[in-house]
Amino acid sequence: MKKKRTAGFIGAGNMASAIIGGIVKNGLIAGSDIYVSNPSMPKLEKLSSAYGVKVTTDNRDVAGKAGDFLFLCVKPQFMQDVIDEIRDAVSEETLVISIAAGKSLDYFEEGFDRPLKLMRIMPNTPALVGEGCTAVTLGRLAARPENAEQIEDALELIRSFGEAVVMPERLIDVAGQIGGASIAWLYLAMEGMADGAVAEGMPRDMAYKFAAAAMAGTGRLALETGDHPGVLKDMVTSPGGTTIQGVRVLEERAVRGAFMDAVIESAERAKKM
């Protein structure tokens, strides 16, 4: 971060909390320079106690004080109401960052009805433990060369809770599914594996620990080695061994195809939100 920055957050849910936590814990913006609004005072009080942020129930107040970055952390169905409320309070110097699925850059340009620097991001829940992978796409004004320093600072904020991947907007909906919605599918897999271990006599808490550790380590190994998933799979599938028999069962049940369909169906749904 090249200079002192300020930020505002409209919405105080889990994802806003994860972003604020990453920013403050990494010393990128002081809590006293972050403004947060939300209808629920208990959520605001929790954030204020944890990170020293300034809180209010007034969205316009936060939009006006945001300064460098304004994060819109509200659900898609509430976004239009928020835009209508804050439209005239946002400075042209502020980078407006949305985390709402399915709401395009064109949607925000039309909603604010004036030139603003816009960014869409799709974070995922591992951001809560600093292991997020966030898709990022820029609006036309934000992408101009004169705004490069502010954009790099925004990416630094995003990297405070994981990785940031900049991409064309046409890819952001599918990125939100393979990086975000897929978390729920992996939990289904974790439950299923743990149930199998329980059926074989393992205590349930131990089964969940082994399944969770295997999934966490698998992802980290893939990221750090950069190896193709097939190569990593082959490392643990010995000829005539136990693992290949499990692979055979999963292929017979079309698990790979089911994951493909889940990504496609979820991405198509996101485009219609």
The CATH architecture classification of the largest domain is 3-Layer(aba) Sandwich
**What name does the CATH topology of the largest domain carry?**
Rossmann fold
Q: How would you state the average pLDDT, rounded?
A: 93
- What order do the strands of the largest sheet run in, or round the barrel if closed? 3-2-1-4-5-6-7-8
- The helix-strand sequence is EHEHEHEHEHEEHEHHHHH
| Cα radius of gyration in angstroms | 21 Å
Termini separation: 35 Å
CATH class of the largest domain: Alpha Beta
Total individual domains: 2
* Anisotropy-based shape: elongated
Number of strand elements: 8
User: Spans with pLDDT under 50 lasting ≥5 residues?
Assistant: none
Q: What's the CATH H-level homologous superfamily of the largest domain?
A: NAD(P)-binding Rossmann-like Domain
**Count of individual helical segments:** 11
Care to describe what's here?
It is a single chain. This protein has 273 residues and is of the alpha/beta class. The chain folds into 2 domains: 7-167, Rossmann fold (3-Layer(aba) Sandwich); 175-271, ProC C-terminal domain-like fold. Helices cover 53% and strands 14% of the residues. The protein has 11 helices and 8 strands. Strand 7, helix 6 and strand 8 (162-166) form a beta-alpha-beta unit. The longest helix has 28 residues, at 172-199. The model has no long low-confidence stretch (mean pLDDT 93).
